[in-house]
Amino acid sequence: MRKINYIVVHCSATREGYALTPEALEAEHRRRGFRTTGYHYYIRRDGTVLGTRSLELPGAHVKGHNAHSIGLCYEGGLDALGNPKDTRTPEQRSALRLLVHQLLKQFRNARVCGHRDLSPDLDGDGIVEPREWMKQCPCFEVSKEL
């Protein structure tokens, strides 16, 4: 098994009121040049958790960190106009908490963070601040919630 340093939470950047099926997610990732879905898990709005990539395989979800991370993605992340927003349903929140809890039992030393938290520290002060985020994803403060 790979050494896991990070459990990284993402959103699918799907607008409220729109569905992104696992098949559509995979097709989008294939269009971007990936062999399959880049995340290891996908959490639908109804709380269904789907395994989308074997944990033994590095992901394709956060440049520079894929070799030693697990990618979790929830369906949503944008308001109806396409602006970043925490759109998680109660079912998604519960499923995400449970999934992270289960993964931390197996990967005890992994840091749980959002994709945006792995943006480059542009000013070198040791803190990735909101102005340095390359993306808003996952649209909520992972370290405070998970």
Describe this structure in words.
The strands form two sheets. The chain has a five-stranded mixed β-sheet, covered by helices on one side. Strands 2-6 form a two-stranded parallel ribbon. The longest helix has 17 residues, at about 90-105. The chain is globular, with a radius of gyration of 14 Å. It is of the alpha/beta class. The two termini are about 25 Å apart. The chain has a single domain (about 5-110), classed as Peptidoglycan recognition protein-like (Lysozyme-like, 3-Layer(aba) Sandwich), CATH 3.40.80. Strand 3 and strand 4 form a beta hairpin. The model has no long low-confidence stretch (mean pLDDT about 90). It has helices at about 20-30, 90-105, 140-145, and strands at about 5-10, 15, 40-45, 50, 70-75, 75-80, 110-115.
Features of the shown structure:
Lysozyme-like; two-stranded parallel sheet; 3 helices; globular
Summarize the structure.
The protein has 146 residues and is of the alpha/beta class.
Topology:
Elements: E1 6-11, E2 14-15, H1 22-31, E3 41-43, E4 49-51, E5 69-74, E6 77-78, H2 90-106, E7 111-114, H3 142-145
Parallel strand pairs: 1-5, 1-7, 2-6, 3-5
Antiparallel strand pairs: 3-4
Task: Please report the distance between the alpha carbons of the first and last residues.
Answer: 24 Å
**What's the domain count?**
1
- CATH topology type: Lysozyme-like
CATH top level class name: Alpha Beta
Rg estimate, integer Å: 14 Å
Give start-end ranges of low-pLDDT stretches: none
Major beta sheet summary: 5 strands, mixed
